[in-house]
Amino acid sequence: MPDQATPEEIRLKGIGVSPGIAIAPLQLTGSRFEEPETRLIAADAVAREKERLQASLTATREQIRNLQREIDDSAGSDHASIFDAHLLVLDDATVIDEVMRTIEGRQVNAESAYYGIINRYLESLRKIADPYLRERAIDIEDVARRVLKNLRWPGGEAGRGIKAIDFEKPSVIAAHDLTPSDTVALNRDRVLAFATEAGSPTSHTAIMARSLAIPAVVAIRDLLSHVHPGVQTLIDGYHGLLILNPSAETLEEYEALRQREGQLLKKLEKLRSAETATADGRRITLSANIEFIEELPLVKEQGAEGVGLYRTEFFYLNETELRSEDRQAENYTRAAEELQPHGVIIRTLDIGGDKLWPEHFEEPEPNPFLGWRGIRVSLARPEIFKAQLRAILRASARGKVGLMYPFLSCVEEVRRANELLDEAKLELDHAGVAFDPDIEVGAMIEIPSAALLADAFATEVDFFSIGTNDLIQYTTAVDRINERVADLYQPTHPAVIRLICDIVAAAHRHQIWAGICGEIAGDVLLTPLLIGAQVDELSVGAAQILRVRRAVSQLDSGDCGEFLQEALKRREASDILEMCREVAAEKYPELID
Ligand code: PEP
Ligand code: MG
Questions:
Q1: Cα(first)–Cα(last) distance of the chain, in Å?
Q2: Which residues are tagged catalytic?
Q3: Pairing outcome for strands 440-445 and 400-405
Q4: Distance (Å) from CA 465 to ligand 1 centroid
Q5: Which domain range does residue 468 map to?
Q6: Domain-terminating residue out of 110, 132, 163
């Protein structure tokens, strides 16, 4: 039995989406009932603060009634009546009076007064033994969270912009979920790792965690009911584990793991300036995926042959000022110059899906991944699109730059995008601005309709970059960010492997190159399949560069071709994955667990 002084170690399992280990006190963030900032207000601002509270109560009432109506329609009035209790909590005159008196008496902002009083009620309810009454605390917390949210973002959450997630001391964080905007706002010096209840390996939040080199674990069931702030926590992004109160033995075990990792990295370091080729000499371009310019030093340090995918959404998720053509041109030029003699492939805006552009997505779409996303947004906003194209073209005068269009589902889209590119070139020409007239233009093939029409797409562009994150999602109808169906998200699904082979073959028939920039490019278990499919380029997270280079160097391209043919005879994803595991275990055991 653990004694009082040594709290019990608890291990929670999820999916490791960004490698690394961090140990620090845990903090909660996201949709929890968080203490707002207290602001002292002037005497003449008291009336205004009370009005803010009233407005927020009205907005909350409306939201609860809407919810109640929706649920009444879909699940019946029994369920909808839960919200009657919420309305009673919201309109409790004693609470409202007390909050109003606190705003006036202590001259503080409405958020702080409201939080203080509700929290006091919650504390006393949580101490009551009766489970029914304790349950009521959840209702009160739910309502109070809404009120605070409406106080903070009176126009609705959509217009809120980015809120930095930061703590005073180094911490690991737990949340129900983090959006890509939350992730970009993490203070990287103090947030050492994070864990969430929701999420999946190819959500943009997970991709960003890898880019930012923040260890992360997602899809931990009931995470928030196990954790509380301040508890010493270890997050293991390699194995998808969160360990509360790690014991002395666990800490020792992790120290040993850290050392093993360190030794492997030392060995791999020797490959930094090596070329990427199979054992029989077939060259592969091994480039990196980035989301931020700040990643360039790491990309170069790891010996990447340029950047194969620069995701540019973060100009648009950030402050408006970053989006100007000049700011973008400056940023792309820096990338092009710093990456010499290699190049950078800049992907045009792929907003939508799980990366929402606040001012244009006020009305939530029922199916954002099937909605207004990627090239669809760019073609509907040609001025914004052309500003980005001009910025990319301007950078092309200063280094090796390519561009590619995301989310293409039909040939008309790539043709229209190319027309706008021609217009952008003409505009620069008239203005006497230099650019590379032969800039390489690529199509991301990530929707099955584009994969099936790869021959037609190949006549419009100079290369293909296969976005397998989306190709898997759309081929198998599995939402890439929904943890409930995460086990159905199978990169080795035979249908996906066939599409990849067909896309590469179509590219080669038309004498253009084809690469992969989805997350599977960095998964060394799958390297034999991808070499077998004859891809020309793999674009991976910076942390995967050396591992993939090593894996490629251990494989023979002829053997991989035969291996692929064998794999294509299998009908189940798990069979193909098992075959891959066997090859990897034989050829580069040090790279896999
Ligand atoms: C992909 O879909 O594989 C891809 C690389 O793009 P993103 O993950 O940004 O959708
Ligand atoms: Mg994609």
A1: 32
A2: 204, 517
A3: parallel
A4: 10
A5: 272-591
A6: 163
